[in-house]
Amino acid sequence: MNPLIISASRRTDIPAYYPDWFYNRIREGYVCVRNPMNFHRVSRISLSPDVVDGIVFWTKNPLPLMPRLAELREYPFYFQFTLTPYGTDVEPGVPSKNDVILPAFQKLSHRIGPERVIWRYDPILFTDRYTMDYHITFFSQLARRLEGYTRKCIISFVDLYRSTQTNMQGLGFAPLTEKEIVELAQRLADIAGKHHLVLETCAEQIDLSPYGIVHGHCIDRNLLEQIAECRLTLEKDKNQRPECGCMASIDIGMYDTCRHGCRYCYAMHSLKTVARNTEAHDPNSPLLCGQILPKDVVKERAAKSCKEEQLRFY
């Protein structure tokens, strides 16, 4: 059996768009997830706090999830919170950064503590509008306003997939050279240091350690151990890219269900597909979208807690 860390979710923004469904699944004690490569293969995953050793949320807007955070008191959890410099030309569905998202970040930090809200400044991309100087200016402003509200910032540089190449047409996108990456990373590291932030990369091959930037672990065993106050016997996630430092987890999201519409997003192929999938969403279904069908093969995902209770050390 495998350790059970829940990723909610790299594939979609559950806190922003599916909070009622998520809390219903917590109350029911299980969730069902379709295999992205085999539609009729469904995993049934326990959400019992007896076996779930942590939940990692990925979001650009946690506000819809926040009123009921008390319902998660039996679970260790933290947030990967993406806050970027882009406007609606790149992130059409994300509310105002200044009026909504920045205050939400600060409010969430007040609720659960700055060590449990990780700032993601990613992906970094260059266009005619979003130049190196633009990134440096905006990152500096954000770092100043987030000082004390987070301990860590994770950066990455945009990866071009077939769908993202299509979605980013018309933006004036220019791939970053290695020289530009190094120069920008060095400038961001200087800014981060002034605001007491640790800077890490997400799934990047390039070595930026000379500038104090190490390879990160977004599903972070050390952080989960601190929150859970016990050791966890977790292994590296073999299903991610080799550069990814994350611990193994089970993602309960679904591709093409996020309505932010970010044009760089690898989890969105088209807005039409997103609209079709979200129309099938039922907050009472065990699946994020749709229902269990007669042809579906549902199998229980074997899992157990990986806590080493006898080794409590916090």
Which features does this protein show?
314 residues, alpha/beta, three-stranded mixed beta sheet, 27% helix, globular, disordered C terminus
The chain-level mean pLDDT equals: 94
| Helix/strand class | alpha/beta
End-to-end distance:
27 Å
Largest sheet: 9 strands, parallel
Global shape: globular
Radius of gyration, rounded?
19 Å
Protein name: DUF1848 domain-containing protein
Organism: Gemmiger gallinarum
InterPro entries: DUF1848
Pfam family, one: DUF1848
What does the model show?
By secondary structure, this protein is of the alpha/beta class. The chain has one domain. Helices cover 27% and strands 22% of the residues. The protein contains eight helices and 14 strands. The strands form three sheets. Strands 1, 4, 5, 6, 7, 8, 9, 11 and 13 form a nine-stranded parallel sheet that branches. It has a three-stranded mixed sheet with strand order 2-3-12. Strand 6, helix 4 and strand 7 form a beta-alpha-beta unit.
In short:
By secondary structure, the protein is of the alpha/beta class. The protein has helices spanning 14-17, 19-28, 97-112, 132-146, 162-167, 178-194, 221-228, 271-279, and strands at 2-8, 30-35, 38-46, 52-59, 77-82, 117-124, 152-157, 198-201, 214-215, 231-232, 250-251, 297-300, 303-304, 307-308.
